[in-house]
């Protein structure tokens, strides 16, 4: 394999999942797109957030469970703990990462910067593995963990009889942990990564992820929301494994290619098949089956959640195409 191919296969992705090998002109255009979309999404969220108060009134009138803003305090604690975990790990793992990082490819300032990235990938592998296991432990045996994800339930059950839904033990704790992680990712990107090439791309992603988890929590959409979280976490695990291994000095190209193929399969199956077919489709179906009274309460909030999900899956398609565009030539060149 040529040195160029080895270099390309390990370039920093355009997201925590994409790849940076695009011409500068294309990148500038996409930067404008992501920046514009971020501003539009923020404006729409701020304009419609008051609609959640209508859900509170509806819930009180019908004896439904709902979670107020005060419930987010544990998520803030989780965010601070995650911040401590990640930045302390960066300090503790620095020496080990330096030993296994490719000595030929990364030197000087670029090496120091990449050590930080590899530390982040290790933290992500550990964190998302634990959240995936925790999520399956919480959802295992429920009627809404579908067969597509290894469960015995159905996709439609996650929105069955909404907004009248049964409680699931520990689902609140699982959800607040995930909200805390998205809070950390949002503020970490906003405060410490403003100069990075994919800042606006990641900003849009974090805005969508954080607002979706917070709104779904407040609107008692935690059943379907937990399925969305389960769908997304495994892809981040395999992505970080592939990125970490590709930059280690002891890698074998045959193993690396297998990891890339596995990562692409997990990404396409979970985010481009299960997500739209098991979540977005039933959101549309539920939206148009509301009673007139419920529709007057949920038409804007649930409609916005659907719109943000469609935008999110559009980003998934963009990242999948970018990833495939970079990896396939490398695989064919072996």
How would you characterize this protein structure?
It is a single chain. The termini are close together. 36% of the residues are buried. This protein has 334 residues and is mostly helical. The chain has helices spanning 3-9, 24-48, 51-62, 73-100, 108-139, 171-192, 199-218, 222-246, 253-287, 292-298, 301-332. The chain is globular and about 65 Å long.
Kindly list the characteristics that best describe this protein.
334 residues, mainly alpha, 11 helices, 73% helix
Spatial gap, N to C terminus? 6 Å
Number of helices in the DSSP assignment: 11
Structure classification: mainly alpha
Helix share, percent:
over 70%
Q: What's the shape?
A: globular
| Mean pLDDT over the residues | 84
Number of strands: 0
What Rg is obtained from the alpha carbons, in whole angstroms?
Answer: 21 Å
Strand-residue proportion: under 5%
Q: What can be said about the biggest beta sheet?
A: none
């Amino acid at each position: 394999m040529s040195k160029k191919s080895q270099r390309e296969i390990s370039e920093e992705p355009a997201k925590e999942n994409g790849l940076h090998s695009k011409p500068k002109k294309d990148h500038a255009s996409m930067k404008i797109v992501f920046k514009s979309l971020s501003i539009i999404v923020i404006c729409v969220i701020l304009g419609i957030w008051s609609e959640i108060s209508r859900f509170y009134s509806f819930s009180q009138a019908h004896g439904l469970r709902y979670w107020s803003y005060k419930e987010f305090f544990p998520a803030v604690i989780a965010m601070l703990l995650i911040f401590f975990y990640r930045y302390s790990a960066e300090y503790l793992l620095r020496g080990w990462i330096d030993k296994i990082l490719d000595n030929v490819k990364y030197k000087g300032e670029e090496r120091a910067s990449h050590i930080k990235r590899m530390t982040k990938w290790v933290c992500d592998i550990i964190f998302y593995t634990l959240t995936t296991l925790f999520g399956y432990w919480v959802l295992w045996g429920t009627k809404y963990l579908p067969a597509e994800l290894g469960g015995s339930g159905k996709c439609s059950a996650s929105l069955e009889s909404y907004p009248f839904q049964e409680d699931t033990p520990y689902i609140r704790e699982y959800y607040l942990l995930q909200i805390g992680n998205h809070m950390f990712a949002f503020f970490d990107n906003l405060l410490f990564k403003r100069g990075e090439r994919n800042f606006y791309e990641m900003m849009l992603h974090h805005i969508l992820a954080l607002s979706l988890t917070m709104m779904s929590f407040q609107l008692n959409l935690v059943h379907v929301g937990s399925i969305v979280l389960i769908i997304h976490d495994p892809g981040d695990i395999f992505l970080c494994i592939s990125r970490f291994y590709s930059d280690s000095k002891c890698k074998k190209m045959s193993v690396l290619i297998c990891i890339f193929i596995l990562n692409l399969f997990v990404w396409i199956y979970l985010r481009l098949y299960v997500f739209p077919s098991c979540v977005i489709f039933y959101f549309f179906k539920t939206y148009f089956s509301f009673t007139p009274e419920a529709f007057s309460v949920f038409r804007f909030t649930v409609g916005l959640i659907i719109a943000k999900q469609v935008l999110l899956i559009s980003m998934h398609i963009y990242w999948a195409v970018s990833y495939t565009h970079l990896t396939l030539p490398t695989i064919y060149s072996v």
